[in-house]
Amino acid sequence: MQQNWHTLPYLVRFANHHQVHIFFHTVFFPLHASWFGLSVEELQHIKQVLAREFFQKNNSIETENNIVYISLLKQIVSLYSCDSQRKIHCNKTNPSQQLISKAHKNNPVGASNHNINRNIEAFLVRLKNETQKPESMYHNESDELLNKFTNIIAQTKDNPNFAAIIDYINTQPIDSILSELHSQSEETLINTINQYKP
């Protein structure tokens, strides 16, 4: 998260001290809390600062925690070096991303924001993983489909059933969702989603 990235080395040391495994979740939404909402320069600064840290590797837990930390640094690099990711997630002027961030910040559901965030994140990972497979028929449309999904979410955020909609989308077979994203217009999909009743 933007607000607490500087504490990550302390968390690794704490985990190593207590001999527990550590794992870092990627925060996609709200955008004002996500690394996706930072500029390239801000991400490079965070990576520089975090890369200065070194940790003991005296046993398997400490070695695995170090691998997790290095993976996090690689993720930061991919955020600022991948144009397609920046276009979809990182561009602060992208109105759909700002709408999604605002939707989550102001969502009256309150406590379920965490679940909404987790379900959107899970779906985006599924969508990205599937479309980036070389054998996927949607391989060349990966960025376009991710952007389309993001726009649809931004335009359905005010639906009172928004949390249930995200839950439902996340339980559907990825091939079915990709087929719909590929073949249907945004307007048609938005209308379909807005008609959903849990």
Largest sheet: none
Number of strands: 0
Low-confidence stretches: 89-111
The structural class is: mainly alpha
Distance between the termini: 32 Å
User: What count of domains describes the coordinates?
Assistant: 2
Radius of gyration from CA coordinates: 18 Å
Fraction of residues in helix: 55-70%
How many helices?
10
* Arithmetic mean pLDDT: 78
Assess the beta-strand content as a share of residues.
under 5%
Shape estimate: elongated
State the order of secondary-structure elements, H for helix, E for strand: HHHHHHHHHH
Keywords:
0% strand, 2 domains, elongated
Question: How would you sum up this structure, described in words?
Answer:
The protein is mostly helical and 198 residues long. The chain folds into two domains: 5-86, no CATH class; 94-194, no CATH class. The two termini are 32 Å apart. The protein has helices at 8-17, 40-51, 60-81, 83-90, 95-106, 113-131, 142-156, 162-171, 174-183, 186-194. It has ten helices and no strands.
Topology at a glance:
Elements: H1 8-17, H2 40-51, H3 60-81, H4 83-90, H5 95-106, H6 113-131, H7 142-156, H8 162-171, H9 174-183, H10 186-194
Q: How is this structure best summarized?
A:
It is built from 10 helices and no strands. With about 200 residues, the chain is mainly α. It is elongated and about 55 Å long.
